[in-house]
Write a structure and sequence with these properties.
Elements: H1 6-53, H2 58-132
Amino acid sequence: MAQDPKTPLTSGIDVALNSLSSTTKNFQTLAGEITQMSKQSFDHATQTFEKLRNAHSLEEVVAIQTAYVKEVFEEAAVRTKRLGELVSTFPTELTKSYQEALQHSLQTAAQATDNVVKTATSNVERLSDIVNK
């Protein structure tokens, strides 16, 4: 019942890769969110520029610029909140991955210890039987 010595290493590598995969997914989500925000910001600025280009009076220009500034600050608040939520999940995900890795390592060590104890017990029993004969 000897366990393959490479199994703990392979299991550890699998856990590390899963952790890396989780981290990569988080960064991809963040990058996608930032890309979407940048696109929306560019589109909004382009639309505002077109409105300004077609403005016919100073009052209209001021109204367009005022509305633009107000919308930019409102969007900035929403974006900051969204990015904060995304970034706040990173430590949780990383901690979870490493907790799983540690738990797996401890279980592997416990299994290896059990195997050593069983083997030692078996050897002591065989030696005792030989001595008693």
